[in-house]
Design brief:
This protein is α+β, with helices and mostly antiparallel strands. Among the domains are: 130 residues, no CATH class; 104 residues, no CATH class. It is built from 27 helices and 20 strands. The strands form nine sheets. Strands 3-7-6 form a three-stranded antiparallel β-sheet. Strand 15 and strand 16 form a beta hairpin. Helix 16 packs across helix 27. The protein is globular and about 75 Å long. It starts with a helix and ends with a helix. This is Cytochrome c domain-containing protein. It comes from Solimonas fluminis. Keywords: Heme, Iron, Metal-binding. Pfam families: RoxA-like_Cyt-c.
Length: 683
């Protein structure tokens, strides 16, 4: 059915201009209302609004909002995601749910949900609480940390003449971790933490003062590395209950490499932070080799020679840089990571960065695994209860309603569009066919979903030959499989692969794939694509614009007396730094040859769309021997102020950082793009 027929069937309260509906390429913004009281009988789904709905937060959390602890939970909608589900419907699913039989069983009542979620919160954000886990030290009674005395000397590492009066804020800015919204104390110089309830300083979310089981403050500061990748910040001059530090997403602002460097330098010797900095995990602020499974084969080998000699440690492709998916979408996924790497219920991997390496590599792996099993399931439950922040700006309701129709019903390969991009094998050709249905009207339309319980779920794996974004991540994941498509026996013994692989490990002929993500809160998740290469949604919807080759997100303005002396983080002020028309954070486009762009080494002056010859050669090496990407780099070992500023530059010529693909949206008109953007603000 064509677009005009679909809108007539839906009986919506508006109609886009004829140019928009015909897809002829005009970019006017005319929106005209559909006459009401036409005398036509409404279909059942027309009784539902185009906008509204749960707005994320999993079905259990939403169900329990007004229920007591004894209330039995309904089934998890993801349990419906089995082979054959929704076949022939407008929304397609091909990535299925798997129950992993975790040590802590999934909750059955609202009370169990609340108790598990509280334990998960403690794991994720238990700042200043006894026993809260730290990087690679979950369960340790006396984990290592940086002395507060050294932390208080960070200003010396920065080259400042004295401790600034806004020291805590500057740490948060430089390391890209917002100050905790809760009390997260550390002792200032001369303070005894046990006489001052931890101290009068305030730490960023990524750090916490270590506290003994009896409540004694130690004066040592540990790192919660998961927070460094997954948390973020969105501020507004107008305030907002769900704005400020974001505990479950809006990431892409952290730079744990800078944090590790600073803490190592301040400590004046070799430490865990120094060791981590010897490995290149990230080349940019806000992204990194988060799914670096080759390193996991080493770190979580338990010292087993079979695991350490796994050929996939060395002879597989480097994964490179990717962005962290927001936790607030976890409840709407059947499989996790950008490439459907593991079942979502495979919870052990969620706390891999808190796995007790000292225990694991010293013959006590059972202890490390027991702690992980006791906490990873509850952490996952907590993450699944999180909801995205509400868009704080004004929303044009009529335009958003038009966008809802386009999102769910416009076939991008429809009559007259002549879309040259490959079409997905299933679904109606709309955005919703891959990303799921969100509008109550479409959720209740049996042509879209066989049951409304499937609303908001996204579980569709797309071949790279269709999505055509940067291929490195998907290709690298397939390089972990053997020639016959299976996994090496050593790999199968990994503790974190106890529930098998996701859909990526089951594709025919090792076909590389990506998993279309849910879009709850997508307005707050810039930059976009799996590798954070596109600064805003307009660029996703129009592959011919807003896709700069080299760009830099704007930074928070420094105080007048500190300009040029301090490193500020990305600007997270909505009114000042957010582009509501394009749906993403403001940025500056750069040219090859500008400061920090590495001309000739990475890019080619005068040929802006090409990597340099040297970079192409390096890319070939990374494709053959993945661990080469993780070797130390000079700029990562030095980290002067200019090096840190350069890490804010996103260069699409670097390995894994291309901004191509998702180009089937080229057939949209600008009017349609504006409507879709307005609709995405409502999710």
């Amino acid at each position: 059915m064509d677009m005009t027929t679909m809108i007539g069937k839906l009986g919506c309260g508006l109609l886009l201009s004829a140019a928009l509906l015909s897809g002829c390429g005009r970019s006017d913004t005319t929106v005209a209302p559909v006459p009401q009281n036409s005398g036509e009988t409404q279909t059942p789904q027309e009784q539902y609004p185009l906008l509204g709905g749960a707005r994320g937060g999993n079905a259990w959390a939403n169900f329990c909002k007004d229920k007591d602890d004894a209330a039995a939970l309904p089934r998890d909608p993801r349990e419906l995601l089995v082979p054959g589900v929704n076949q022939g419907k407008a929304v397609a699913f091909n990535a299925y749910w798997r129950d992993c039989g975790n040590a802590v069983a999934r909750p059955k009542t609202c009370g169990e949900l609340r108790r598990q979620a509280e334990l998960g919160r403690f794991v994720a954000h238990g700042q200043g609480e006894p026993g809260t886990p730290l990087s690679f030290a979950g369960g340790q009674q006396d984990p290592a940390g940086v002395e507060a005395e050294a932390y208080n000397r960070l200003w010396e590492v920065w080259g400042l003449p004295g401790r600034p009066d806004n020291f805590d804020e500057l740490v948060a800015q430089r390391h890209g971790s917002p100050l905790s919204p809760y009390r997260n104390p550390y002792p200032l110089p001369g303070e005894d933490p046990n006489q001052t309830d931890g101290g009068s300083g305030q730490l960023p979310l990524a750090y916490t003062q270590i506290r003994k089981a009896d409540g004694t403050w130690t004066g040592k500061i540990g790192t919660k590395v998961c927070v460094a990748c997954h948390n973020g910040q969105i501020d507004s001059d107008k305030g907002g209950a769900d704005l400020g530090p974001q505990l479950a997403g809006a990431g892409s602002i952290g730079d744990f490499a800078v944090g590790g460097y600073d803490l190592g330098q301040a400590s004046g010797g070799f430490s865990l932070n120094s060791a981590i900095n010897l490995i290149t995990i990230s080349t940019n602020r806000g992204s990194g080799a988060i799914d670096f499974f080759q390193l996991a084969f080493v770190l979580f080998s338990r010292g087993d020679p079979q695991l350490l000699l796994n050929p996939k440690i060395l002879f597989s492709q480097a994964i490179g840089n990717i962005k962290s998916p927001p936790w607030w979408n976890l409840a709407y996924r059947a499989q996790k990571f950008h490439g459907a790497i593991l079942p979502t219920d495979s919870s052990r991997i969620d706390l891999a960065a808190y796995y007790d390496l000292a225990a694991s590599l010293s013959g006590r792996d059972d202890e490390a695994l027991a702690w992980n099993d006791a906490h990873s399931g509850p952490f996952q439950v907590w993450a699944e209860t999180q909801a995205p922040p509400r868009y704080p700006g004004a929303i044009d309701t009529k335009l958003a309603e038009a966008g809802a129709i386009l999102f769910h019903a416009k076939d991008l390969w429809g009559r007259g569009l002549d879309n040259p991009a490959p079409r997905p094998a299933e679904g109606n050709g709309s955005c919703a066919s891959c990303h799921g249905a969100y509008s109550p009207r479409f959720i209740h339309d049996p042509a879209y979903l066989e049951t409304p319980e499937l609303g908001g779920l996204a579980a569709y794996v797309v071949p790279m030959s269709v999505v055509r974004t940067d291929p490195v991540y998907a290709d690298a994941m397939q390089s972990l499989r053997s020639i016959d498509g299976d996994f090496p026996e050593a790999t199968k013994k990994q503790n974190f692969l106890y529930c098998g692989s996701g859909a990526y490990g089951e594709t025919d002929n090792k076909t590389p794939v990506l998993l279309a993500p849910p879009l709850w809160g997508t307005w707050a998740a810039a930059p976009y694509l799996h590798n954070a290469s596109v600064p805003n949604i307009w660029g996703v919807l129009d592959p011919d614009s807003e896709r700069p080759d080299i760009w830099r997100r704007v930074s928070t303005p420094a105080r007048e007396d500190q300009k040029g002396l301090v490193v500020m983080g990305y600007d997270t002020n909505f009114e000042r730094a957010y582009d509501s028309a394009r749906l993403g954070w403001k940025y500056e486009a750069l040219r090859c040859g500008d400061d920090g762009t590495s001309p000739y080494r990475v890019c080619s002056p005068g040929e802006e769309e090409r990597p340099s010859t040297a970079q192409n050669a390096i890319n070939l090496l990374y494709e053959q021997i993945g661990l080469l990407w993780n070797l130390p780099r000079f700029e990562g070992l030095r980290m002067n102020q200019q090096d840190i500023e350069n890490r804010k530059i996103y260069n699409t010529h670097l390995y894994s950082q291309g901004n191509q693909g998702h180009d089937f949206t080229r057939v949209l008109t600008d009017t349609e793009r504006r409507a879709l953007i307005e609709y995405l603000k409502t999710l």
